[in-house]
Amino acid sequence: MTTASGAVATARAGARSRLPRLHGGPLRIVAPIVVFALVLAAWYVAGHYLLPEQSKFLLPPPETVVSKGLLDPVARTEILTALWSTVQIALAGLVIAIVAGVGFAVVMSQARWAEYSLYPYAVVLQTIPILAVVPLFGFWFGYEFGSRVIVCVMVSLFPVVTNTLFGLKSVAAAEHDLFTLHGANRWQRLVKLQLPAALPAMISGFKISGGMAVIGSIVADFFFRQGEPGIGRMIDVYRQRLSTEELLTALLLSSLVGLILFWFFDFLAGRVDRAHGRRRGA
Questions:
Q1: Rounded Cα–Cα distance for residues 86 and 81 (Å)
Q2: The domain spanning residue 159 has which CATH number?
Q3: Please, what is the average pLDDT of the chain?
Q4: Cα 175 to chain center, whole Å?
Q5: N or C: which end of the chain has fewer CB within 10 A?
Q6: 179 lies in which domain range?
Q7: Rounded Cα distance, 120 and 257, in Å
Q8: Is residue 81 part of a domain?
Q9: Distance CA 16, CA 23 (A)
Q10: Angle CA(152)–CA(155)–CA(159) in degrees, nearest 5?
Q11: pLDDT tens-digit series, residues 63-94
């Protein structure tokens, strides 16, 4: 089996060496900063000069949002406490979605009958309107931490299942033939061939699911309205108060959480790719 794994790694190395490599360099950092500065400038101009005086509360300028949403100690404590509750629920749901999604995808990749039996329900899970089932989850499981985690799992499961299954099934037939030639069993084929080949696709699914888990946590909190308040409930409170500065702060910070999760999985993808490169060069 070592010979088979080495031959597969050599074949992949040769194929990748013929592909052009894209290096972002400083552009990966400079380009988003430039876009952020342009958006901030447009926001500043709109908040100060474009909106009529009676409508400026709808889009306060950036410095007002920072002073009232972040620098004010009462508002900052309120928002960060709610954000921490949302982050805990989102992370718990994301971890469960990753474990369950990868498990379902592995099962479906090993037998056609399992894929035909389970995959349609994964699609159905994705197409169910989440706002319609949130009240049912509240009736069945209560309105506390557990039911909100279930909503996050439901929202973020499908990208993990789809991308992992795609990665597991994308292994070239020649590589499968090589493992068959060396007498590999089903477990060896899965662990040494399919799962390593599926890692990039799996992590792409994790990137999508990270943002979806944050959205699911906010939606669940917005509708359940019981238990420890999260960002969803605070957004509704600020909407009722017409506190646009605090509302925008809550929205931006919750978006930042999703962005951090994306960066984490992007960093993980880079580490995985470098590890594969070192093994191919070994």
A1: 9
A2: 1.10.3720.10
A3: 84
A4: 31
A5: C
A6: 2-21+61-281
A7: 31
A8: yes
A9: 15
A10: 120
A11: 988 998 888 899 899 999 999 999 999 999 99
Whether residue 205 is contained in a domain is answered as yes
Asked, for residue 35, whether it belongs to a domain, the answer is no
Please say whether the beta carbons of 229 and 221 come within 8 A: yes
- Domain tally for the chain? 1
**Does residue 262 form part of some domain?**
yes
